[in-house]
Amino acid sequence: MLYSLLSMMLVLSGCASSGNPQLREEAVVSQIKIGESTKEDVHRLLGEPNVMSKTVINRRAMEVWGYAYSATQTNPLVFVPVIGLFTLGSNPVKVESAGFGVTFSDDGIVRSITRHRSNVGEDQPRIGTQTETKSPQPR
Questions:
Q1: What is the DSSP letter of 38?
Q2: Half-sphere exposure of residue 18, counting CA atoms within 13 Å on the CB side?
Q3: What 3-state class would DSSP assign to 109?
Q4: CA 27, 31, 33, 38 torsion: positive or negative?
Q5: Is the alpha carbon torsion for 27, 28, 31, 35 positive or negative?
Q6: 3-state SS assignment for residue 121
Q7: For residue 35, what are the contacts with CB-CB under 8 A and spacing of at least 6?
Q8: Which residues have C-beta within 8 Å of that of residue 118, sequence separation ≥ 6?
Q9: Is 12 helix (H, G, I), strand (E, B) or coil?
Q10: Which of 12, 36, 119, 133 is the right S-S partner for 79, CB 3.0 to 4.6 Å?
């Protein structure tokens, strides 16, 4: 009986992630520099973007790449009858998410970076957004 209960907890422990785990690595993301890094640099560091779009801003062609990562972890005790009721009050689900957007000018150079990171379900939840922009040089 105890063995089946433990097996069930492991199966139902609810760990899932999707997207690009490289976004969790500050050492990787911090290598991308506004005004210096190219599309090739970003692709080498982060791989294929989840989303790509092209637009024209002030008569200048721009390309935007977007990356995302999300991971969810559920405390397996939530699924145990009776014990799960007491577990609900102690952060039974933890969610980590990260987003990274980069805008390239028509010459393929990084012109802006937008970053988002959050960790919810911890004792001290953290949510942060950072945007850096450098305008293209006039021609």
A1: B
A2: 1
A3: strand
A4: negative
A5: negative
A6: coil
A7: 109, 110, 111, 134
A8: 95, 96, 97, 98, 125, 126, 127, 128
A9: coil
A10: 12
- 100 DSSP β-pair partners: 67, 115
Q: Could you tell me the CA-to-CA distances from 5 to 1, 13, 79, 82, 88 in Å, in that order? A: 6, 12, 10, 13, 19
Cβ density class 53-81: b for 16+ within 10 Å, e for less: eeeeeeeeebbbbebbbebbbbbbbbbbe
Task: Read off the pLDDT of residues 13-44 as tens digits, 9 standing for 90 and up.
Answer: 567 778 888 888 889 999 999 999 999 999 99
Amino acid symbol at 17: S
Q: Which residues pair with 73 in a beta bridge?
A: 15, 94
42 φ/ψ angles, rounded to the nearest 5 degrees: -65, -45
List pLDDT tens digits, range 83-138. Answer: 555 555 555 667 888 899 999 999 999 999 998 888 777 655 566 655 555 444 54
In the chain the beta strands, taken as DSSP E runs, fall at: 15-19, 51-57, 60-74, 93-105, 110-120, 126-133
Tokens of 34: 């506004």
The strand pair at 15-19 and 51-57 is best described as: unpaired
Can you read off the two tokens belonging to residue 16? Answer: 């899932």
